[in-house]
Every structure is written in structure tokens, then in C-alpha cells.
Amino acid sequence: MKKLIMICTVLVLAIGGCAWFFMKDNAEPVIARSVTATVEKGDLEVQISGSGSVAAINSEDITSSVTGEVDEVLAEKNELVEKGDELITFTDGSDPITAPFDGTVTTMDVEEGDRVSSSEVLAHVTDYKKLKTTISVDELDIPSVKKGQTVEIKASAFEDETFTGEVTSVAKEGTYENGVSSFDVTIKIDKPGDIKIGMSTEVSILTNSVKDALYVPIEAVQMDGEEKYVNIQQSGTTEGNASTKTMVETGISNDRYIEITSGLEEGQSVSLPITINESSTGSGGDGMRGGQGGEIRMPSGGMPSSGGMPSSGGMPSGKGGQ
């Protein structure tokens, strides 16, 4: 019996030892490493993005201002008309109904001899040459949106084209939903071209910009109480601990980059500390495994340890003014 117990004990210890050995080898210890980025100089932009759909700026029901009998109908459906053109006249000599703006008659619902009443809808006119798109902007971003700001517009039907526009109105009242208020922002499309009413759009509103700004990736700037600092990488080193803490002052920022107004010079290298798995460092891949298990990829063109940030300067992002 004692012999049997000893054999069982040995087997348990052996199995436990093997399990520990394999678990130890397969474990991926998380260690702190860092990559670096170069302090770049260029144009930094802050943009607010949103999606919407295309509508006509001018699209209006044509109503009768009198009660009477129609004498003549002077325009047909799908006919182009100019502002002031007579559309409908009356037998009693009342003022004729005229086109309120240049456009296309999309409906004409009366004929000669019909009797109409005041305020009755008789026709509809739409101007297909002047178009707009409306997006919804979060209450945290709406203070940055102003009438007259420049807008870039992408239409889903024209993926290779970028259209321009201008903010023409910002709603004075918001819509409250799920604990957040949002506000409608209307944008006039400068040259709609082949864009049609009802098409979907993606809009980027330029809310702020600085030319020839010094900037770094936003994660490079850290807080020490109420002060901001970066870790400047010492020349010729790549380890995260071979750096100097330097206080900085900042300006505008977007989701990717932040302006440095004081404390750094163009060309300096700053540390970007991240947490990665040790096993991922030898894979030679394009990205690094982050703390959430996903792949962390650098900005367009990659960000090697020597710096290598995009030269275009301050690539725009969805949310502004962080």
C-alpha cells in the first residue's frame, strides 16, 4: 500500500512539473519597451468629421395665394424655369404664380379650368444645381464649428473625388439622445458636379490649423501634475530608459498629433512608451501587439525606431481640440 502511494505521489509531481515547464515556456511575459518618433515641422490641422446626405438648397412647394379658376398653366413637369417666370395665371386677373428661383418643375398638379383654393399646393420646383449636406455634430465639438469654415466632402458614389464646401449654418437647438446632445451643421457644396440628391457623404470640417507647426504623436506628451513633458531620446540609443524628461508647452491637437509650442526642436527624437509582448519583438512584423491583444500600427508609412513620422504634417482626424 505504501509503495502504491509513493508511486502515485511521484506521478503527480512529475505531471505537475511537466505542466509547469510547458506553461513557463509558453507564457508571454509583458515587458515595457519604447519606440521613438521625430519632432516634425509642417501644417497641423484639426478637423471634425461626420456623415450626412445630399439635399437641395432650394426646393419648394408652389401654393396658390388666391381662390379662383386657373386660366393658363405655362410650365410642364421637368421643365427648366428661371426665377420670376410665370407658371400659372388666373381668369380673374389675380397676380400670376411665378417661379421663386431658377430650377426644375418637379410636379404640376393643376390644369387649365381647375378651381383652386388659397394655400393649395399646385406645383413643386427644385434647384438641382445648388446642393447641401447636413451632418450631426456632438455637443463637445460644436463650439469649434463656425459659419464660413472650409469643408472637405467625399461622396460614396465618387470615391476618387474630393469636393469642397462651406459651413452655412449651425443649429441653435440640439437633439438629445442617449445622454448626449448633437447639433445639425449644414454645408453648401461648392461645385456639386454629378452629385445627386439623396447620395451619402462623409464630411471633414477644418476647425483649426497652424502652418509650420512643430508636432509629435499625441501619446508622446505625458502629464506630471499640471505640467506636460516628453522624454527626449538620447542620441545613438534605442532603449526607453535612455531618455531625458523635458517639460513642454502645447497648442492645438487632433486625434494623432499635438503641436509643441515650447520645449522641443525639429529633428529631436521623443520616446513613445507602449506595452508589448516579448514574443512579438522577434516576429519582424509591421506592427506590435498591444495591451488589448490587438495590433498597434504606426501612422501612414510606418514609424521606425529612428523616427520616421509622415512628412505631410498633422494628418487630420475625426475629433478635434483634444
TrEMBL record:
Record InterPro entries: Beta-barrel_YknX, RND_pump_MFP, Single_hybrid_motif, UPF0194_transport
Biased composition (Gly residues): 282-294
Main location: other
Biased composition annotated in UniProt, kind: Polar residues: 269-278
A Pfam cross-reference name: Beta-barrel_YknX
Subcellular location: Cell envelope
Domain of life: Bacteria
One cellular-component annotation, GO: membrane
Biased composition (Low complexity): 298-314
A GO term for molecular function: transmembrane transporter activity
Limits of the YknX-like beta-barrel domain: 135-205
Keyword terms, alphabetized: Coiled coil
Start and end residues of each stretch annotated as Disordered: 269-322
PROSITE patterns the UniProt entry points to: PROKAR_LIPOPROTEIN
Family: Belongs to the membrane fusion protein (MFP) (TC 8.A.1) family.
NCBIfam families: RND_mfp (TIGR01730)
Protein name: Multidrug resistance protein MdtA
